[in-house]
Design a protein that fits this description.
The protein is α/β, with parallel strands linked by helices. The chain contains seven helices and five strands. Strands 3-2-1-4-5 form a five-stranded parallel β-sheet, with helices on both faces. β1, α1 and β2 form a beta-alpha-beta unit. α1 packs parallel to α2 and α6 crosses α7. The termini are far apart.
């Protein structure tokens, strides 16, 4: 919890994972004048170090509230990110957007957005931000604009606030069609300190990035594209 003072600003929920995209999303929501309530979900991911990164980002950006919620996805789902199999390493760039990768977590964004929606309805927020991106992760079905539009319709059909006309829920994905380099440049312009973020899917116990998983490769290329030094501590190159 960061700042519990009442605010006259409209409230927004930002799904904050601790990575580049969600940190930039939070900065965008803040710049747009929202009182930002960040929601971080501990869902059994093997890269739990991202939870600590989310806390650093929330404090760094001065967000109004930061909620951390536990969900036991490994008990019902299988994914490389949940430890069911090995995280792919050193895949060529041409493979990163082909098919659905083993790092896909069943229904993750549906679950995360549902939790964000529950929080939004509870605290009187109508706006939900998610750092979904189709350029880097086009293999993930729950990052597509069709899914986000469908969830927005669901939000207004399946809630008391939506049915009663008390709220018109909106799902914002401002990074959907940006490259990682463009996202990094945007985040820097908004004051995001990317040293605080974490992207690696398979970090060491000390939290060092592996340098070889899909997410590390995309992060490296993004900083190179942006012309900015990558501040990440990698265990190997």
């Amino acid at each position: 919890m960061i700042n519990d003072l009442a605010s006259p600003k409209p409230k927004a929920i930002v799904l904050l994972s601790g990575g580049i995209d969600s940190a930039t999303c939070a900065a965008i929501a803040r710049r747009r004048g929202f009182a930002v309530h960040a929601l971080t979900v501990s869902y059994g991911q093997r890269h739990r170090v991202e939870l600590t990164a989310a806390g650093r980002i929330a404090e760094h950006l001065g967000l109004d509230r930061h909620y951390v919620l536990e969900v036991d996805l490994p008990s019902i789902a299988r994914s490389a990110l949940l430890g069911s199999e090995e995280v792919p390493k050193d895949r060529p760039a041409s493979e990163l957007s082909q098919d659905i990768p083993p790092t896909y977590v069943p229904a993750r964004n549906t679950i995360l957005l549902s939790l964000a929606l529950a929080l939004a309805e509870t605290i009187g927020a109508a706006d939900i931000f998610i750092g979904a991106n189709v350029l880097d992760y086009s293999g993930y079905p729950d990052c597509r604009p069709e899914f986000l539009h469908a969830f927005e319709r669901l939000a207004n059909l399946a809630t008391r606030a939506g049915v009663a006309g008390q709220a018109q829920f909106r799902v914002h994905a401002p990074l959907l069609f940006l490259t990682k380099g463009e996202i990094i440049r945007l985040g820097i312009s908004l004051g995001v300190d990317f040293r605080l973020t974490h992207s690696c899917y398979d970090p060491t116990p000390e939290g060092l990035a592996c340098g070889h998983c899909d997410s590390c490769q995309i992060r490296k290329r993004g900083f190179a594209e942006a012309g900015v030094t990558d501040p990440t501590a990698y265990v190997s190159e």
